[in-house]
User: Fold this.
Amino acid sequence: MKYRDTLSGLVFFAIGVTTAWIGSGFYADTAYIPVGVGVLMSVFAVPLMVRGVVGNTMSTSMPLIHHPLRFFVTLACCVLFYFLLPIIGFYTTSTLFVIVMALLLGERRPAVVICVAVVFIALLYGLFAVVLKRPLPVEFFLAS
Amino acid sequence: MKQYMLIGALAAATAASTPAMADDYPNRPIEIIVPAPAGGGTDAVARMLNQYLEEELGQSAAVLNVAGGGGAIGVNQLARTKPDGYTLLSTWNSPITTVPHMQRVQYSYDTLTPIISTSQSAYTMCVSPDFPADNGEEFIAELQANPGHYTYGNDGVGGTMRLAAERIFAAFEIDARPIPFGGAGETLQNFLGGHVDIYGGSITPVLPYVEEGQAKCLLVTSAAPNEALPQASGLEELGHPELETVLWRMMLAPEGLDEERATFIADAVERAVQYPEFQEFLAGQGETLNLVRGEALRERLRQESEAIGEVLDNLGLKKH
Amino acid sequence: MFESLFHALPVALQPDSLLSLVVGTLAGILIGALPGLNPVMAIALMLPLTYGFDPIIALGLVAGIYNGSMYGGAIPAILLKIPGTPAAIATTFDGYPMTRNGQGGLALKTACWSSAVGGVVSALALMTLAPLLAKVTLAFGPAEYFWVAVFGLTSIAVLVGKDLSKGILSALLGVIVGLVGIDTLSGEERYTFGSLYLVGGFDLIIVLIGLYAIPPILEMAEKRNESYFNADSFRVSAVAGGLGLLRNYWRTWSRSSLIGVCVGILPGAGGNLAALLSYNEAKRRAPDPDSFGKGNPVGIAAAESGNSADNASAMIPSLTLGIPGNLVAALVLGALMIHGLQPGPQLFTKSPDVVFGFMWQMLLTAMLLFVLGGMVATRLFAQVLRLPTALLVPTTLVLMAIGVYTVNGNVVDLYVMLAFGLVGYLLDRLEFPLAPVVLGVLLGPMAEQNFRLAMLISQNDASVLFTRPISQGIIALLLIVLLSQLWKYHRRNARSSAAPPSGSA
Assistant:
């Protein structure tokens, strides 16, 4: 039994039914495709569920997440990065992000980390601020 | 002595071009939100104006295209920014006067700081050469005689063209079927391919086909006729000048922008539009200058918004 | 017409035109190679800098960036499994496995040559057949576009990946994502759940970066100690010569280029559809279809010549009719208008040197790729892999943040990208193919809108979808693809049900 197939089949079935159900409330021709797509999705989710239940016992051995700690550390750093971007500015946050993530992921040579971070941010600054003049979140020490 | 005079003259010139301000605005690059995709007509005019505006502001200004929702997405985004004069909006009228009647938005003409309007142009309606009409009056008569028969391509539900057409059709009791395309380019493609009967959209894209005899334009949505389309009648000629619905462009800022900065920007725009290269460009686009500032601009927005609200209500298009 | 064509050649060969081509192509490769930056944005940002110059310089830059980025997108697709541009999705299928097998150099070389070949074929089509092909564009009305979208979506859902129902579910998921937001035909909000952010719908670029770039980065972060790459495989000496490539790929190249040119003349479809259709066709025709997705260079040749062949031909409707075929074409039109040139049928007679000069430039930049592409990619970008993974992960994440932020200048887009990244990661682990999701977001709205437009025009007479000859042709193609694929599944299932499943495409 491939429980993953059954589960993902169930999730798709639920999405399909919800889509069609919400879609049926739309006005006239705005409802055609949402309902159609929702119904189709629930129909195609059925064989997946069935196969998961009655299929042969061979199952995929790949774990969903190889290394949960590093996975969630990376995610948490991203969320923090996005949260701080508009508050303390693009270039400052990005420099900190690169340094902190590199250290957390196990790079233990501070000189390498700082060099790469500074050169990388300098390149970005050259490209976006000098050449392309693209506005990015303003640094906290420059905001008026 | 001569040198001193030169310096004095320079100083005077600088003072004239950047009026003395309490602060040193603008001291960093300005961001101009254009609520339309890169490459379209609104974008082209905004970018063209931007070049000269940068000179006049003495600061670089970057155009940021935030398309979608008939322009509402970009205006919403502007409405959420700080009113410090570093984020401005370069828009056409529909996102301000039409879209709020049809969608939930976070702004209205009342909650944005009006700076200055820049230019305007009319829309046109064109048909293929074998269409049984040769001027505005015959065009209207042909449409009246065949209710529900003809299809006209337009720029979508919240589009100014669609509104202009519906106002005219309502006044003449015409029943034509609107086919909402993504924009003038798509409408033109479907009109040339014979998939719709009537082209409804801006004048510039269809102009080459009029010259080639592949299209004849019979109506413009301004009161006066248009020089580029001699065959087309203006609305005054048809007895309804009050139905004029045109596309016009303006510069706005978020609510609460400092009066001094607003005046500073309006002055800069007013000087920027005087560049001959910009005026030449506008003429090529079939647009004419139209400068209305500050509260007068708000009044213009208010009047148009109310008139359009009424039309949409009658059409049953207003948001429920 | 051919007289003016040759009259314009010296214009395109002027030193300043050539310089703009070289600069544009290099910039294009760079922009394409950085995930998150895309050619549309780059051209939109660079064009204003050129207003003061001769139009041919502005157009040279556009041509360079456009063709260069189409190849540039393949570089991270091959090295990191992250498509640099939407059109490079199909390149990841075989490109990344080749890198893992130590054949990264060959993969880059194949991508470079294939891009160049596709670009050249497309430019030749633009030069010789533009007025003729423009007529084809006009013959496509809403009903025909509906079928094009359905054909693209169905064939990719069915052909990519190992599992029929998973491919279809992926595609449907993409369509649902594409439905979110204001409906352009009625102005009604759909699936917005009261959120003002959702009113605008999901931007394709943001969905793409999330789905395709976040999962490989997370994977890299998880396995940071393992050495992935063998940087020595990128040494130029490890790469086979050009004539050998030509002999191996010329059939694939000609088929894919033809597909790319055909997709290009239809406004709205775009390079990623061309690449995926080309990939599918190459896989279908191959004697060894099972080797696709595991590092078969023919897959790269098909994808890259397909997407590059879309480029110049997408300019056909915009130059001949004044109707932009994609966003880059719209920017070219904008540039012409700013220089006082009115796009449309008279452009060819009024300013032949500019329009034919631009066509030559499209051809020249494609040829420049032969020289610049290999050099830049192998000497410069492959070095990126020498960076420790612990640094590669955060720097790539910063690049992606810039890319997504610059789309709309909105921080919320970053969280949305991350959310799509998690969805992509899960789907990938559950062996759902991701390409159909992206195509669903792109083609779903195209299918829906054109279906409803066709119904509006015909006053709800559904026969309009089946009576016109072009529609019937596309339906026939669709049936062929579907039936042959169903037959294959049937045969495979009958033969053995024990074949171990391998990583999804």
In short: The longest strand of chain C covers residues 181-182. Chain C touches chain A through 63 residues (CB under 8 Å). The two ends of chain C are 46 Å apart (CA to CA).
